Amino acid sequence: MKFGTYLVQESKISQDDLADALEIQKKFKKKKIGRLLVDLGLITQETLNRGLTNFFKPEIKNVYGLHQEMKLMSSLPQELKSLAMSHKAIISQNSKNQIDFVRMELIDDKLLELAQTMTGKKALCWVVDKEGFNFLCQSTGQVVGDRPQLVVSKNLSDDEKLQEDSPYSKLFREIMVEAKKSSASDIHIEPTNEGVTIRFRLFGTLATYKALKKEHREGFISKVKNIVNMDLAIVGKPQDARASFKLLKTDIRANSLPNLWGEKIVLRLLDQERDFRLEQSGLSSDAVRTLQTVSKRKDGLILISGPTGSGKTTTLYSVLYELPRDKLNVSTLENPVEYQLAGVNQVNIREDGVSTFEGSLRALMRQDPDVILVGEIRDHQTASLAFKAASTGHLVFSTVHANGSKEVVERLINLGVDTFTIKSNLRLSAAQRLIPLICPHCSIEASQKEVELLGIEGSFKKTNVDGCSKCRSGVTGRIAVLEYMGEDEIKQFIDSPKKSVNLPKNSLKNEIIELARTGKVDFSEALAII
Q1: CATH of range 158-271; options 3.40.50.620, 3.30.450.90, 3.30.2310.20, 3.40.50.2020
Q2: 278-528 architecture in CATH?
Q3: What does the pLDDT look like over 208-256, one tens digit per residue?
Q4: pTM above threshold 0.70
Q5: In 3-state terms, the chain is what percent helix, strand and coil (to 5)?
């Protein structure tokens, strides 16, 4: 009887499970069926170890005879001794082609797998009872995992987990490489009735990359959770986690959310090599100069608004990046911290009732700050504290949810900030969007009737959704667009809102129309801003 058949007979797996695993094993011929079943999430490591012990029954009866053989064994390499100790085993043989371990009552297949990888030799595990095991330990001087001399094997790093040889690790590695190559901002791993759908967010739009069958749903999602450092024991509630892959030069911010068919996982990809210079941000030269000018102020509040994924936090990072951080105390309060900036004190806000923007900002004010970035202003308390900091000699940057630069001011008033405080301390009110860049090779002319919807004249181009060999669905990337009001415009808008129809002068609509005139973006993008 083969081991897989034995597991079916013992009701550890179904016949269908075994058939599926054997089919997959054809692609990984060197992978033992038991280890493959663990990788697929069909059995646990504990079930495998017990199954192997009961199936092979490798009990040693003559412990004294084994002791005599072990006495003839030459000195052991330190790495082998450390491996054995960490798995509560002792080494009974170390020949040219084979290494044998002895454990108490139960085989440890993970020990055998690691030993084979380390030595290239065949590895076997034998079991003895507790009394016999203690005798062998004492008589040979070998120690096991609960002794103080133990050299504990280290946890695998994120890169090591990504490079594991299991089928699901290989699949996840392939997904990461392709996402990086495609410049995807997010990876969506979505359990469905049919299996798992994997989608990439490319230039703001989701596109399906791959679909897996139902039998791989739990196994693959469990492996992803393991690689991105989520708790495998938690399945009924959301989780947040992070991972850092130096080999891919990418960090991941991960979130899981239970849905009807399992746990949906979304991975935000953060490029470790990202260039935070403002000149490389894609913003207009006027916008860059304005941001550089206000960032030289000693006090005041700079606010950028925009929907999720509009790049507003990246713009603020770029402003911080250009500050003389070696001469300033620059601190941030973020939920969560995305990129790590050298010379900046970054605080991760958990919003758990203990760590909040409001409480952390109060504490930060006693840390002698020069420049403060508050991830988001969302309530009266945080807004009041931000303006208090801005009015007492600190330069404060933050974001707020609003549709435009005028709406930023209205949002502050709705949060209970008085207009005198706003006029005295708000240095810049801005709104940002990321607009798709149309492919210059396959874009098509827009009809005059379509253009008339904007109330403008001229010839414009639009996206060719069929795309070409040099783009993806007619899009080649995205460009940041910023509208803003300076202090004079802010005061004018507060004092005479009805007379401020033409504010801001640098509006999103005008910026997008100018980009459309040059053929860089679809003319219809301006319609979404009206």
Answers
A1: 3.30.450.90
A2: 3-Layer(aba) Sandwich (3.40)
A3: 999 999 888 888 998 999 899 998 777 788 999 999 999 899 999 999 9
A4: no
A5: 40, 25, 40
